[in-house]
């Protein structure tokens, strides 16, 4: 205890299992000599295994939002109203109820919607939270985009609608706010992860490349219009749109706003993608074993061959259970 070591060797008797996540797992492979040859040679890292797919082909689902002032109490009060914060804290500590008993994203039906519209809005959100772009907005897509989207399975949703009983925009008053966030799920842009240092204390270089393609841009713009439709259908909005504002109307204006508002929803995947041994971009096999070396597996979202639509947590659980079974069988 209390000692520090600058150099140490830790030996595994059976195998090493890497689970550092979508960005750190490819970083650790590269600094260890497994990765694209150009990257390793540039940093004078001895090449153990040339694997051009490490850090390449990252899938992600960018998020952006539209915000409105509303005529019902929302979670935005937690940021500005001391009395509301005190009551919410007391309710949670004494009876585990109130706005602090759940995350903002599933708070809509429970607390902010008036009873006369709650059923219809909840029905919409529960059945249409994931959807393909409605036909009324699909007419705004180019033939190229329609062709690209047709490459996805017929039941693959293109958008996720995330209503939030809060503001995603900076506000200065004590009003109540509501946001509709949109995640683009049928993306054709791909990011990458690389390194410019051999020191793992230095962060990897991540280029998500959100909305790099025309297809993603067009889908995002129409998704923005869909968010406006949903917000205006709730019957609870008050006054003009808070963010970005009613002055944003043309597709070019909408796209520029989206680019400024984009945020991660922390779904990045596929930086060490799974694939067959005849796939030059595959990093691991179907058991998570890294090609080109022995006794090394990866078990995290970086090995997804693609990013499923929606939230990947349950998919990752399934993957972990499957590979855990492989590990026990192999050992």
Describe the structure.
The protein has 331 residues and is of the alpha+beta class. It contains ten helices and eleven strands. The strands form four sheets. A five-stranded antiparallel beta sheet has the order 5-6-7-4-10, covered by helices on one side. A two-stranded parallel sheet has the order 1-11. Helix 2 links the parallel strand 2 and strand 3. It starts with 15 loop residues before the first strand and ends with a helix.
Helix fraction, binned, reads 25-40%
The largest sheet is: 5 strands, antiparallel
Shape: globular
Q: Give the helix/strand class.
A: alpha+beta
Per DSSP E runs of 2 or more residues, the count of β-strands stands at: 11
Task: Enumerate the strands of the largest sheet in spatial order, edge to edge or round the barrel.
Answer: 5-6-7-4-10
Could you list the spans in which at least 5 consecutive residues all have pLDDT below 50? 107-112
String of helices and strands? EHEHEEHHHEHHEEEEHEHEH
* Global Rg: 23 Å
Query: On the 0-100 scale, what is the average pLDDT?
Result: 91
Whole-Å distance between the termini?
Answer: 33 Å
- What is the beta-strand fraction? 5-15%
Number of helices: 10
Short summary:
The protein is an alpha+beta fold. It has helices at residues 21-31, 37-42, 82-95, 108-112, 115-128, 135-138, 143-149, 214-233, 251-261, 313-330; strands at residues 16-18, 34-35, 49-50, 63-70, 130-131, 159-164, 177-184, 192-194, 205-207, 237-243, 296-298. A five-stranded antiparallel sheet has the order 5-6-7-4-10, covered by helices on one side. Strands 1-11 form a two-stranded parallel sheet.
